[in-house]
Amino acid sequence: xxxxxxxxxxxxxPASAARDRRAALPRxxxxxxxxxxxxxxxxVGLFTLLLLGSLLWRSAYSPAEVAxxxxxxxxxxxxxxxxxxxxxxxLLNQSQNVxxxxxxxxxxxxxxxxxxxxxxxxxxxxxxxxxxASPVRWLRSTLALGSVAVSVGAVLLVMVYRTALAPxxxxxxxxxxxxxxxxxxxxxxxxxCLLGLAFGVCAGTxxxxxxxxVFAGVVGTGLALVGTGTARPWLWPxxxxxxxxxxxxxxxxxxxxxxxxxxxxxxxxxxxxREGARIDPESCHSGPRGMEECGVRAxxxxxxxxxxxxxxxxxxxxxxxxxxxLLAVLAVGAAFLVLRRRTP
Length: 344
Hints:
single chain, 12 helices, ABC transporter
């Protein structure tokens, strides 16, 4: 009776080779897009340096010195403080526009260099062969690493912006309900960046040509930003304030009444009749007695204001984040479905 002996190393060879191929796939993706990662890291660092640097510059002047300058009892640092505050305010204002553009930049890169460029140049077959990976596994690895990089960068941007915004949050023109300030001050920015990645990958997979894919990815992400921004006030129940109707402007509802804060977002202001019908006040400005005549003629009994106080911002962001991530999942699913059908 004889026994056939098999070397232990040879039995484990297929499994070891498979593990090596799986480990090589992320490294190949990183090597391919390392320049984009470096550029992204530099831009995030520059954003951090400018915003936090301007905040530290402004904070270098004590409240006592600023108050003394305001009363005229001595203003040695007034000009320096005004310069620091102007630079800080300007950078904070412009950073809101920058944060709104970040998801569009992510979509453009994901649609072009990340997916469509290799297909347009015909190098995708070589990449799949050298990495010993199927097209689905290659896309899965690309999406996973891209999602990690995008999420980390977006979280850092949110942290930096919130830190710089803290002294003036809710002031006119910054933070609060300003579109860029709203998006940049919570998790919704991370969700929009992931949506840009998903839309870009989907466009690149569907179209396969760089420029049309970039256009489609950016337009799709932009439409999502506009659409959710339009629907935003209706994603969470609003607070209401009802006051008796009168033609006297002094008794109309105003910020400060019934919990209606000055930094609240007004969803709607209506005249309400006895039957509960709502009338837009803008339609009642005509006539010799204007609003009062219109209200009496229509049988108006009260004013109704629907608004979101600043405390509603986080719940709204969480709901919006969930909806945006759902769109991203659907876009990624469509990309994988198309890829499976187009490749053997």
